[in-house]
Specification:
Number of strands: 6
Strand order of the largest sheet: 1-2-3-4-6-5
Shape: globular
Number of helices: 3
Structural class: alpha+beta
Helix content: 25-40%
Order of helices and strands: EEHHEEHEE
Strand content: 25-35%
Distance between the termini: 41 Å
């Protein structure tokens, strides 16, 4: 695992983006990716005083695990995981070298396996996939604070 925190000059903690990135090359790194997510969220609470519910802590780790697992399973070479706080949410971005876009299957309770992206999409406020000049980038957002009367994923009702 190659870990790189971002520092962009002398800004206040409020203005400076809070983020962490790491590269993963082996399937054994999936647990390290979950640990990175947990440590990042714990630092948001302890150092920056941002609210992170236990539910959000679990969901982010689940999403990181699913996205990094898919990347390691279907793309050659390393993947890059970035976690960043923006707009009251943690954004999880995974880049890998495969240009093949993920196939999101329709819900099917009789299907064994291949429910990962279905679960990811159910718990996220947003889900984006972009082809890059090399590979693809998947970006999701999960709201940090629980909204007792709102949608658990933080999506706005239209």
């Amino acid at each position: 695992m190659d870990l790189a925190g971002q520092y962009e000059g002398p800004q206040s903690l409020v203005e400076r983006p809070k983020s962490v990135s790491a590269a993963f090359e082996g399937s054994e790194d999936i647990a390290a990716a979950r640990d990175l997510a947990r440590d990042f969220l714990e630092s948001l609470q302890a150092v920056h005083g941002l609210p992170v519910s236990k539910r959000v802590m679990g969901m982010v780790q689940l999403v990181v695990s699913e996205l990094v697992t898919n990347s390691r399973k279907y793309a050659p070479g390393p993947c890059l995981l970035t976690l960043e706080v923006s707009g009251g949410a943690v954004e999880v971005t995974v880049w890998d070298s495969s240009t093949t876009l993920p196939l999101v299957l329709a819900p099917d309770p009789t299907r064994v396996g291949q429910h990962g992206l279905e679960i990811v999409m159910a718990v996220c406020r947003s889900f984006e996939v972009h082809r890059e000049p090399v590979g693809k980038r998947i970006k999701i957002a999960i709201v940090l604070a629980d909204d007792p009367g709102g949608d658990p994923a933080g999506r706005q009702m239209i």
